# Entry
Amino acid sequence: MDYFLELFLGGLTRGSIYALIALGYTMVYGIIELINFAHGEIYMIGAFTALIVAGVLTFWGFNHIAILLLASIIAVIYSAAYGFTVEKVAYKPLRHAPRLSPLISAIGMSIFLQNYVLLAQTSDFLPFPSLIPDFKFLEPYSHLIRPPELVILLTTAVSMLLLTLLIRFTRIGKAMRATAQDRNMAMLVGINVDRIISITFIIGSALAAIGGILIASHIGMINFYIGFIAGIKAFTAAVLGGIGSIPGAVLGGLVLGWTESFATGYVSSDYEDVFAFALLVLILIFRPAGILGRSTIQKV
# Structure
């Protein structure tokens, strides 16, 4: 039973990270129907920014809590600025272009950011400091879940709650929902659609940066390629749950995390990705819109 719980909690932790990144995909798609393939690189840039800031603050003699807070805040702001810039440079000029054009632009931006970090840093794996402090909790069950994993779960839950409250009860959230429902009508009632799209990219990039910091601190290693792998997994999670659905992104991330965890624990780590993408294929065959997605009817 302990082994099952260990796998369950490990999958929950992994799925929480996928969910944080998947939210960026699903928010952008829900509003402008674009798959931002550069989103995984924003996740990677957030982790690298936290690593650099943590190294500088450690050199200056800051304490552990101050390093964690400052590195996280600066990484989130820096990544949000990147997300804003990517939208303005790569996507906004192509807003009315054929749908294939922004897709190619997104892939090109992903490759550009990968190689930019590769040239600016290194192709080797770099050690990432454990920013999450170690503490005692739930002593009888401490062997099942470690403090960094608990922090990941709590951070993800708080992020999801704040995002839900933002979208449901604020003016910006209502404007986001209106833009997602009908962009032209939203413009007619006075909503600045370009501003709403930029805010969506900023929020999604900030969540990706949080995920990058958490998982890099948990694993203890980082390199320029982690964004591509995490981005593909998070995109898979978004499609599983239903692209464009925020609850679907969370559910898809958790389902994917549990699938990989149990496949690793009961079969083999070599088949981790096989089971994950086989599940995606089955979902797309029997429910093409995803678990919580809704099929749409297009007029011709």
User: Anything to note?
Assistant: The first strand starts at residue 126 and ends at 127.
